[in-house]
């Protein structure tokens, strides 16, 4: 965890908060800390493939796992294809459409 920087005035008026992010903490050239993004590891992708394989048996659990990965790892657009490559084309379409159809008024899709 990294402490959020604060000004002298704000240090007296509010508590310091801790930023929790799925990023790796590193030391920069000044000796301070910075966060760097680490792509998914092979192990993480293998675990996701095992979850995704069960999509046809339990689509709700798989969709929830996909949502959890999004919250936990905060993937960017270059990570999404890696996750989707672990699924069949039909499963990809179901995962992609699920969040969209759940937020679109009935009859629009």
TrEMBL record:
GO terms for biological process: viral process. SUPFAM superfamilies: Retrovirus capsid protein, N-terminal core domain (SSF47943). InterPro entries: Retrov_capsid_N (IPR008919), Retroviral_Gag-Pol_poly (IPR050462). This is Uncharacterized protein.
């Amino acid at each position: 965890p990294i402490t959020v920087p604060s000004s002298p005035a704000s240090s007296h008026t509010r508590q310091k908060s801790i930023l929790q992010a799925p990023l790796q903490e590193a030391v920069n050239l000044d000796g301070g800390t910075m966060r760097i993004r680490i792509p998914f590891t092979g192990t993480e992708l293998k675990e996701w493939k095992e979850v995704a394989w069960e999509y046809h048996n339990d689509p709700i659990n798989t969709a929830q796992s996909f949502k959890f990965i999004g919250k936990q790892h905060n993937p960017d657009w270059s990570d999404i294809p890696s996750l989707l490559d672990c699924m069949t084309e039909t499963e990809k379409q179901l995962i992609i459409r699920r969040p969209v159809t759940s937020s679109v008024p009935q009859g629009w899709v």
